Amino acid sequence: MEHDKKPDSGPVQDFLNAEEPRRDFFTQAAAVVTGAALGVVPLFAGLAVFTDPLRKRERKSEGGADAEGFLKVAPLDGLLKGGEPRRYEVIDDRTDAWNLFPREAVGAVYLVRPVDGLVKAFNVKCPHAGCSVDFKAENACFQCPCHDSSFKPNDGLIANPNSPSPRGLDELEVKEVDGMVWVKYEEFQPGTSHKVPEA
Question: What pTM did the predictor assign?
Answer without folding.
Answer: 0.65
